[in-house]
User: Fold these one by one.
Assistant:
Number 1:
Amino acid sequence: MTSKIEEARKAYSANDVALSIQAHDTLVHKEMHKTEGGYLKSAIYGGFDGIITIFAIVAGAHGSDLGAAVVIILGISGAFGDGLSMGLGDYLSTKSELEFNATERRREEWE
């Protein structure tokens, strides 16, 4: 089986479709991909990040003997900034991952 994999790699490198088809005719495999839980990682990561940074902002402001209104404003502005940052970060990360997966899919379809 290893020789068939090597033949497929050589066909891909040489851009030889006929050789690729020949190498894959006897090469049978089933790939298992997980599809669930796409947003769970982002929710947990964002939640922990938000809890820790908001706590640090509020604790620091309270420790500085700032008024209650200032502490609340800092907490809300920190939550807004964290939410925006995490949302943009997750969007860019997901976009990059989808682009990578599409490239891999095109390569595998060619093989």
Note: Helices lie at 2-14, 17-25, 40-63, 68-110.
Number 2:
Amino acid sequence: SASNEHGTVAATAMLAVQVPPTVSSPPTAQTTVEPDMTIFKCVASGQPMPTISWKRRLTGSPTDEQLTSGGKFFIQADNSLLITETVYEDTGTYICVASNDLAEIRMVESSAQLTVNVRPNIMTSPQNRGSMEGRALLPVSQS
């Protein structure tokens, strides 16, 4: 405010401080077994509040795939990524992308590895065998 012998004038202004996005709680590496569910969590901060998106890079692939909710992938209200019924082919790097409208630094990424193991599977059923006492029981070869 300012004043003199002729009166007083006051003005207010709003100062908006913009802060580039940062990932304050990155996703962590996970190991799971087919067909279990997997959840990656990611928390970001900044001003304006960053939006979170997800992408993945499958093992052996040079490019990233943008993930959206649908099929086996669901982006939850808390921005976590839910993968239902993971399979071995889902093994790869999952990337949390935090972005806001700040012009200088628009996005930051943080990633975690997903390893999907496969449960053992018996391909040939065991067969009953008999032997006489004192004789060796030899394995049957499968050809």
Note: Residues 30 and 122 are 26 Å apart (CA to CA).
Number 3:
Amino acid sequence: TELLSLPPPKILAKFCTILPAENTHINLKNSIRADLYLLVLHFSQQHQFSETQTGGLLTLFKHLVDMILEGRELSDVVLESSQLLACQKDFHPGMRFDFYEPDQVIAVTDYLT
């Protein structure tokens, strides 16, 4: 909740203290990751997502980034995100992204693609 109320520069500074990545200020890879998470939070703010919706989007984003880093095909990543957002697939057993309205699913899909 605190992050959602801060302006982007302060979010980034806070992110650098909570991300599980050291040396964000000198490591390009970690810095890019922090910037990407900042953009996801900014998107959530712009669309007035609740804390649950923002947390879900951050979880989904991390999952997709992990898939990419594992070398998964882009088509697999797109299919996975579509299935998760459309509640056609559980993220974990019994855990679905069922807290988005249809227009929010469209906005998230557009944002991720």
Note: The chain is about 65% helix and 0% strand.
Number 4:
Amino acid sequence: MKTAIHCSNAPECCGPCSQAVHHGQTIHISGQIGCHPTSKEIVNTKCVKSQTEQALKNVQAIIEAAGGSMKDIVHCTICLTNMEDHNVVNEVFAKHFPHHQSGDKNHPAPAHTCFAVKELPMHAMVQVSAVGCCGGALPN
């Protein structure tokens, strides 16, 4: 059985989809851009670092609403409007997934795929979707 995850600490989806879907032990998180959940505006429209920070905060809020944590993320897909921003995005990812740098073999860094796209919603510079594995039970 699959269950939609809703989190008020992340922006609503802009299309006919769920913020995340929990199925079995897997959580599939829809693409998150650097949109602030309260203002519903892109943070710092000219800064991929700020937008990546916010996108990952949104991912974190959603996986926590599903009962997991960033340590449970096993894969991220990153879309960039400019591939030259890849190194900056990797620096931000390292901050949000610090457990892999400490040598924690039980929680390695997630795999990720990154590719360039022509455009993203709301003229964002980056979008991050994620898959996490965190058990079969949803929080109450």
Note: Residues 9 and 136 are 23 Å apart (CA to CA).
